[in-house]
Automatic annotation (TrEMBL):
Residues 1-27 are annotated as: Disordered. This is Transposase. It comes from the Bacteria. It comes from Streptomyces lancefieldiae.
Length: 90
């Protein structure tokens, strides 16, 4: 961008000045363990939403809906590979 100076000559415009660039999360409190726990819960809800009856609230009665959530959670739990706490892998 070129601007004309009051004297008639041409000047180059200064580069645009924006807010100072900061890295995300700089200065924010972040608890890694709390984030991990929250992530586990969010992933669980997202897996439950894969079941159509749960996602659309197909059952009108709360007891039936709760039973559907329990069944879906049980199916997800049974699908999950077994984790051996005594294994050498960490």
């Amino acid at each position: 961008m070129v601007r004309r100076s009051p004297g008639g000559g041409k000047e180059r415009a200064a580069p645009p000045q924006g807010p100072a660039h900061r890295r995300p999360g700089n200065g924010l409190a972040f608890d890694r363990e709390l984030y991990k726990a929250r992530n586990v819960v969010e992933r669980c809800f997202n897996r439950l939403k894969q079941f159509r009856a749960i996602a659309t609230r197909f059952d009108e009665l709360a007891t039936r809906y709760k039973a559907g959530v329990h069944l879906a959670a049980l199916i997800l739990w049974l699908r999950e590979p077994a984790r051996d706490s005594l294994s050498d892998r960490s």
